Amino acid sequence: MPVGLFRVCLLVITAIVNHPLFFPKENGTVPENTEEIIQKMKEREESLRLEQLRLEQEIADQEATQKALEKAAVVVEESKEEKVRWDMWTALSMVIFLLIELWRQDFQEGNWQDIGGEEDDMAVLGKAFKGVALPDKAVLASFYEKRILGTTGDMARMREMVEGFADDLLEALRSVCNRDADMEVEDCMGVGSMYENWRVRKPFVCDLIVPFAPPEPYCFRCQTWCSGDSFPPDEQGYGTIKVCRADEDAPGCICDKTKLGEDMLCLLHSQVSSTRPSSEMEDLLCFKNTQYLDADQVMKWFQIAVTKAWNRISHKYEFDLSFSLLDSPGALKIKFKSGKSIAFNLTPVVQYENSDVYFISHFPRSSLAADIPSSTHWFLTFAVYERRFIQLVSKRLPANACHVSCLQILSFLHGKQCSLTGPSGLTNYHLKTVLLHLLQARPSQDWAPEKLEARLQDMLKFLEKCLQEKKLYHFFIGNGKVPAELGFPIIFQRAEPLNLFRPFVLRRDIYRKMVDTFHEMLRNMSALINEYTVHIPLAHTNGIRKE
């Protein structure tokens, strides 16, 4: 046991003595695996560096993602705020639109055509009246008595003669037409200045309209621009006329709206009546391959029918009858053997439903329908209601009221100015429309005969304002104040007002000519009146200026 313990102690002492850390050798060598360890350490260092770069890249990516998310959140927030602002603007716009619509309706019903009835409006209507001196009451009264009344005395006799001959001619026309195939012609009616007693310029021309209807079993179905369907702005005031069978489109029948089976048949409308050959529709004066009445076809038919009628009754009269205008279907002229002649217009029209509004094929001597969209578009005339309105208002005015005198004087001056400077877009119908607006706006006592000068000034002021604004609204269309006694169709009262000056907005040359002619008429007014008035001092006379 002691020997074993001794051996163990000796072994431990020998190991301690020989350990290199205690007794390093001076010329010792580096172990052989040192370079391998260093290489591994470098690889480890490189691996750690790459790992650090990867971690830095991940951190950078996370930061970029975080920034993108924050930016997207900001954009979403801004879009929400923008949407809120847009919704507010939309709501505000809708409110403004509703207010404008309410104002427009009030404007149409209460003051749809601004009259400017104050006496001091003269100072704010432009430069046309500056330096213009209107003739006084004495000069106007003398001019009207000697120039206007002196030339209109034979109007009644001429109307009576023309109406009697027209009735005889239409009766002969009915006799030469085939009642089973041709249009049915009704009695004629007088309209326009000759029948409203304000025409002043010669030659006197009577305007007669002749309603006609299709033969049985056909009927006319009229459609206007204000009937609900959309019409372009340039077709306002027009309508179309469809030729249909009387039993076509019967109320409650759905055969045209629903596909019936091959083994089903509509008892109201047979298959034979649903399709008609184009030749049949052309015989009914329709446009080719359509059911719409063609104004050109009507013009040709009417001229042929009038010619046949005249050939039948010509032996009864000691004068000749001829067409005076090729582009107007009923512009007729009576020529006596003495050389004198009488002109009148016999124009075919179609009645709108059961009213006295008519679709007219052509306007003789007028530019109102100069640019008709097509021959299937018919212009609506309210001439019968205009005549009735003047007659109705005249009953409420003082004796010898000056309303007709104002229109006659203004029409005469405008005609004389056009003879000097050439025709313009301004027509007698525009002047008549101005008078209709003023008749509705001013009280009855304002039209006393001694107020002729003031009312003439009102017409000139109103017309100048309309020219400046390029707005002169049709008197009946859109006018909610039409007297109920007239029985005027409500559909036209509720329609949008029709601006008679709209065609001049895009045709600046015609508009400029119209304004220049009006201003020249104002400057020449005193001279024109004095020229046709006797016993007027020379001090009142000025030279007439031409363009």
TrEMBL record:
Signal peptide interval: 1-20
Domain called Mab-21-like HhH/H2TH-like: residue spans: 404-477
Protein's UniProt keywords contain Nuclease: no
Main location as per UniProt: membrane
UniProtKB keywords: Cell membrane, Coiled coil, Glycoprotein, Membrane, Nucleus, Signal, Transmembrane, Transmembrane helix
GO cellular component, one term: nuclear outer membrane
Membrane association type: Single-pass type I membrane protein
Compartments where found: Cell membrane; Nucleus outer membrane
Coiled coil region boundaries: 38-72
MF terms (GO), sorted A to Z: protein kinase inhibitor activity
UniProt family annotation: Belongs to the ITPRIP family.
PANTHER family named among the record's database cross-references: CELL FATE DETERMINING PROTEIN MAB21-RELATED, INOSITOL 1,4,5-TRISPHOSPHATE RECEPTOR-INTERACTING PROTEIN
Function in brief: Enhances Ca(2+)-mediated inhibition of inositol 1,4,5-triphosphate receptor (ITPR) Ca(2+) release.
Name of the molecule in the record: Inositol 1,4,5-trisphosphate receptor-interacting protein
Biological source species: Motacilla alba
